[in-house]
Amino acid sequence: MTHFAEADYWKECDLIKWSKSIFSNSTTSISDVRALCELGLPEWTAPNINFDMYDIHNGILKIGEDRDDRDILLNLNSLNISISDNQLLVNTSPHKLRESLKLYATMVEKAIASDEEAFVENRVSRQLVDELKDELKKLDPECLCGKSFWIDEIKRLKKQAC
After folding, report:
1. Is the pTM here over 0.70, yes or no?
2. Would you list the DSSP string of 102-143?
């Protein structure tokens, strides 16, 4: 089994890192501060998410946009990450968001390893999609409850699965 490291999928992208001062008045965990301020999030990553620096409004920090140009927001009180238009949950913390994106990137790398056109054709095997779902469930069970960003993404992937 091939093991993929972060450098395999994020080596050529700029990482967006936020200032620790944003979290100075909160009870943010060390792992969440590290995820956003030291390690950062890639400027662009699968599944077509862009991260960038934005202003804070009413305790909400916009951290990026998804494939449909919907805002991705971090609630600085709850630390939940959601899609703005309908409060669709993405993850329950910045650390879990970063880890979820790494799981997704690993799935993409595995797909490419078995089918070089998989990324270009937006094609992933059902087995890899199921593995992603299982790993997400272990990492952040709430991100797979009810209606969520990751449930929608898994459905989209399964529609196109080979």
Report:
1. yes
2. HHHHHHHHHHHHH-TTHHHHT---HHHHHHHHHHHHHH-GGG
Distance CA 134, CA 106 (A): 13
Q: Where are the beta strands (DSSP E) in 4-125?
A: 15-16, 41-42, 44-45, 49-51, 56-57, 60-65, 71-75, 81-83, 88-91
Residue with tokens 């968001």: 97
pLDDT digits (tens, 9 = 90+) for 37-95: 999 999 999 888 999 988 888 889 999 999 999 999 999 988 999 998 668 999 999 99
Structure-token pair, residue 79: 């630390």
Per DSSP bridges, beta strands 44-45 and 41-42 are unpaired
Chain-centroid distance of CA 88 in Å reads 13
64 has which bridge partners? 51, 72
**Sequence-separated (6 or more) residues with CB below 8 Å from residue 134:** none
Residue 64, judged by CB atoms within 10 A of its CB (0-12, 13-18, 19+), counts as buried
Per-residue tokens: 49: 């998410």
Q: Give the total residue count for the chain.
A: 162
* Tokens (6 digits) for 48: 């077509």
